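Database export, one record per block. Field names are fixed; values are copied verbatim from the stored entry.
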Amino acid sequence: MSIQKYLILFFVLFQNHIAESRTPLNKNSSLAYIEQTVYGRIINKATNLPVPNAKVTIKELGQETYSLANGDFSFPSISLTKFTLIVDHDQYISNEIVVENSDSSKAIEITLLPNTLNMKEVVVVGKRSTLNSSTSTLINRLAIEHLQATSLQEVLQLVPGTPIGNPSFSNTNQASLRQYSADNLGSLGTSVIINGATLSNNGNLQAINTATAGSGASFSTSSGGGVDLRSITADNIESVEVIRGVPSVEYGDLNTGAIVVKTKARQEPLQLKARFNPALTQFWGGKGFGLKKSGNNIYVDIDQTTSNDNETNKYRKYSRTTGTVQYTGYFGNTRKWMTNSTLALGRSKDIYDMDPDFVVDSLKTKSIEKYVRFTSNGDIVFNKWFSRTLKYAVGANYISQQGYQQQYYTADITAESYALENSTNEVSYLPSSFMSKMWVDGKPLSLNANVNNQLYFLTGKYVHNILIGTEWKMDANYGKGKTFTRPIRNTSSAAYRERAYNSIPSLQQMALYAQDRITGKILNSRLDIMAGIRWDGVQPFQNDYSLNALSPRLSVALTTPNNITLRGAYGITSKAPTLLYLYPENAYFDFYSLNYYATNPDERLAIITTRVYNSQNKDLKLSLTQKFETGFDIVFDKSNKRKLSVTAYYEKTKNGYSMSTTLNSVKLAQYPIYTVDSAPPGEKPILSNDVSSKTSFVSYYQPRNNINRINKGVEFELSLGKIQATNTSFDINGAYTYTKSTNNNVYILQQNLAGRETTRVGVFPAGRGTVYDRFLTTIRAIQHIPELSFLVTFSAQTIWMDRNRYVGYDSLPIGYIPYNQNNSTSLQVINFSEQQRAAIDPTADADIFLNINKATYIKETWKPLWLFNLKLTKEFKGGLNFSFFANNFIDHRPLQSSTRYPTIYENRNISFFFGTEVSIAL
C-alpha cells in the first residue's frame, strides 16, 4: 500500500474518531458543558462607540467571528462555561479576557483601546503572540510606522536577536530567522505568506549556468533562495507574525519558519506619505473606501521607491513600483462568511549601468521583474458538529523576470561551439574583441490552494480543537530561458549553451494534515497540547522523482495559577527543492581537437569536441529540519504588562540544498586530437591520418543535499512595564545565536604543478564548514507623551560576543583519483589507510597535499560593540505626521584588527544613517 493510501486511510479513521468521540450534553458533568449562545459587544474605550469588524476568537475552541456594525458578536451552541476570548482589530490593541459565563442571557462587553499616539497605551515593539502554541512575534501597524520600514526585510529587526541595519536595496534581501546571517538555504526554508497565500520562489530559474556557477548570476537574483523581501513594501502592511518555533501543521514547505503578512483592508482616509534618506526616495498613498450598504471595504494603495547604492553612485540603482486593490466582505446576518481578496501589481528594476567616464569592459547588468498576484481567503462558519468553521486560501502569482548582462571581451582569439550533443565539429573563430550579451527570460507561475476544516468536541474535562486540511501547490516557468548573441568567453573547457525554460516540467506539491489542540486543567493549572501530523508529497505525477515526508509536531504548555507558563515543543518540517535543483541544465565542455589559426581567414581551421553530462540528481531528497524547543513565560504584573519570556531552541537541518562538485560530477573526458598534414595556401589545412586521443579531468556543479546545519540558541523578551510618572516604558530583548554549517561531500581538488605531469587528483574529507555564534541584546526606551501625540524611541543594541571559525579543513587527502593513465576514462577513487595518510609528504606528494593557511585554524573573535539609534514620531492636528530616525547617531565605528589576520583592520558597526518621513491624512 502506498503512503498516499495510508494517509487517506488515516484521515478517514481520524474523522470517524471525531464522530464517535463527541461528548453528549450532560448537565451533571463536572464542567457543566451546556450548549448556550455567547454574545456581547466590542466598544471603543476612548469614545464608547461600537467597534465593527473586530475578530473575536474563543481560544480553547478556535472558533472565530466578527463584530457587526453595532459592535455585536455572538457564538451559538458553545458548550463551555469558562473560556478565553481574544479580540483583534487592526487599529486597536488586542485584548484577551477570561469569561465565566453560566448565564447565557448576560452580554459580554469588551473594550478595545485604539493603538494611536494620543492614547495613553501604545504598542510599538514586537510582542510574543499568545494565540498559537508556536513561538512567534506579532508586529502591528503602529510599530511598523514608527520603525519607518520601507520593506518587509526591515520589519524583521523587531524580532529578538536580529541585528539592526541600515535600509539597503543594493542587493537581494533574504530572510534570516534564528540564524547568524542570511543565505540561500535559510531564506529558502522561510515561507512568506501574504493574506493567506504563499509567495513562492520555487519557479525562479534566473541563473547564468548551474553547472559552473550554481544558482548565481552577475545580475541581481534570488534564484535558489527565498523571496526577495525588497519587493514587498511595508507601508500597506497591517500586521506581521514571524513564526520561529514549531509551527502548526497547516504551515508546510518550510524549514526555518514563516513570515505571515496581513495587508491593510479597512476604511480610512486618504493618506499620502513621502520618505527621504541619503540612499532612498519613496512616495506612497493609500485609501480605504467603505461600502455603506454592505459594510464591506475596499482598500487601494500605490508605492514608488527609488534607491541608489550610495549618494555618489547614480549608476547602481534600484526602483520599485507596487499597487494593490483589496476587498474585504462580510456576508450573512451574523457575518458567517468573511472573505478577503487582493489584486497586487508590481515592477522592480535593479541595474548596474556603465559610467560613461569610466568604460573599461562595457560591463552592464540589469534585472527587471513585473508581477501580478491574486489572493483570496476566507472563513465560513457552519456551526455544525462536523464543521464549525471552514477556512480557505487560494493564490496565483505570475512574474516576468528579465535578467541581462553584457561584457566586452578583449583577449586571445578563441573559437565557439553550439553543439548540444557529444560530437566533434568544425567551428568558427570569434574575433579577438567582441561584445557578449546574454538574456535570461523567466516567467514563473505559482498557484496554491489551502482548505481546512475546524471543529471541536469534548472528552471529559478536555476540549479538542480539531484542524483537518489539505494543500496543493504548483510552480512552473514558461520563459524563453537563456539566450545570447555571443557566449561568455570560454577561458576553460566549461562552456555555455542556450536553454529554454518552457520545456521544464512543473513542480507539483500535495499535502494532507490533521491536528488536535487539547486544552483543559490539570492540578489547577491550564494544560495546552497541540499534536498534529502533516504529509507532504513532491512531484506525485512525475516518474523521475518520488519525494515525500511525514512531519509530526507536538507542543505542550502548562500555565500555573501564579501566571508562570512552562513550554516545550518538538517537530519536523520539510522543504521541497525548487525547479532549479530538480531540473538543472546540462554541463557542457568544449575541447580543441584542432586549433589551427592563420592570418588568412580562408586558411583557418578549428575543430572542437563537445562532451555533455546530465547534471540532474534523481537521488535528491527533501530537506528536513528537526526542531526542539523549551522555555517559560512569567507575567509579573498583568495590569502593568511586566513579563519575561525565555526560549531555548535546537534546530538540525539535514539534506540542505546547494550546487556543488561531488564524486558523481567529476569525469574523465576523452576526445580526439588531430594533426595537420599540409597547409595549401588560401585553403583550409589538410588533416593527417594520425589521430590520437587525450583525456581531461572535468568537474561541474550538481544539485546535492550536501548541507548539514545546526541552529541553536536562547532568545528572551523582557517587558519592564511603564514608569507612570514619566510615561516611559522599557523593552529588552536579545538572543544567543549559534549556526554551524558543514558540507557532507568530499572535497575534490586538481592541482597542476609546474614541471610535473598531473597523475592524481586529491580527494579530501567531507565536513568542511563554518561555525558562527553571537550574543546581542537590544534595549528600547520608549518615551510617549499622549497629550502631544509624540513618541520617541531610543534603542541601544550591544553585540557582546561575535565569533566565527572554520571546521573540517584537512591538508591530508583520504584518497585520490588516478589521472592520465593510459587514456583511461574509468574514474575510481583509491582510498588511503590512516598509515598511508600519515606518510604523505608535502613535497613529494605536493599534487595531493593541500597547503592550508595557518590562519584558517584561528578563531575570529571581535570585541563588544555598541550601536545607538533614535526614532521619533509626531502627529499634528489636521492629519499631518512627521517621523525621523538616526541609526548610529553618535557615529561609533571603531577600527578593529582581525584576530585571524592581525594586519587587516575593519570599521565595525553600520555607518551613520538618517532619514525623514512626512505623511498626511486627508
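Remark 1: DSSP finds seven helices and 54 strands in the chain.
Remark 2: Confidence is low (pLDDT under 50) at residues 6-33.
End of record.
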